[in-house]
């Protein structure tokens, strides 16, 4: 660049002449700054401490063992074994208890349940009669044994 007043050679960015001191043309305004790309940090998700709760107790409901089928089976066994007395009585009582549990759980007294009630009742009645019969037979056998009478004693061999 050259001075406008004296013609001396000047550096390109000189504002005044180094020879005559004349002011040179106003320097061109600096170029506008290039917009710098701004980096925005991505939004961090808000993490929270997990909230732990006391575990809730849920009772385990056992599968129902009381059903009309088992009550029916025990009722039938009570009728079959009523001739033994005590065994028929035990089966009849078990059948009645299973039927009671079945009905308490909302079962309906129909079909197998009704048959179980009838069989267990008959088995109970017949078992009681058979037990009374067995006791009477034992008493008679004891009394006849004490009297000395025997069916075979009247024969002379």
The residue ranges in which pLDDT falls below 50 over 5 or more consecutive positions are: none
Structural class: mainly alpha
Order of helix and strand elements from N to C terminus: HHH
Q: Give a quick account of the main beta sheet: strands, pairing sense, barrel closure.
A: none
Indicate the proportion of strand residues: under 5%
Q: Quick one: how many beta strands? A: 0
Give the radius of gyration: 57 Å
Mean pLDDT: 78
Describe this structure in words.
By secondary structure, the chain is mainly alpha-helical. The chain has a domain at 68-147. It is built from 3 helices and no strands. It has helices spanning 68-80, 86-104, 112-147. The longest helix has 36 residues, at 112-147.
Concise account of the structure shown:
With 157 residues, the protein is mainly α. It is 43% helix and 0% strand.
Topology diagram in text:
Layout: H1 68-80, H2 86-104, H3 112-147
List keywords for this structure.
157 residues; mainly alpha
């Amino acid at each position: 660049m050259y001075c406008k007043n004296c013609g001396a050679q000047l550096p390109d960015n000189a504002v005044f002449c180094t020879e005559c001191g004349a002011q040179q043309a106003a320097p061109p305004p600096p170029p506008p700054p290039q917009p710098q790309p701004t980096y925005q940090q991505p939004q961090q998700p808000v993490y929270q401490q997990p909230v732990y709760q006391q575990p809730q107790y849920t009772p385990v409901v056992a599968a129902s063992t009381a059903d009309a089928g088992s009550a029916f089976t025990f009722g039938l066994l009570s009728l079959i074994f009523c001739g033994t007395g005590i065994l028929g009585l035990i089966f009849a009582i078990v059948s009645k208890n299973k039927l009671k549990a079945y009905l308490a759980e909302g079962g309906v007294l129909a079909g197998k349940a009704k048959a179980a009630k009838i069989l267990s009742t008959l088995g109970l009645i017949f078992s009681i009669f058979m037990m009374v019969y067995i006791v009477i037979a034992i008493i008679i056998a004891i009394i006849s044994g004490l009297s000395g009478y025997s069916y075979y004693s009247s024969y002379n061999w």
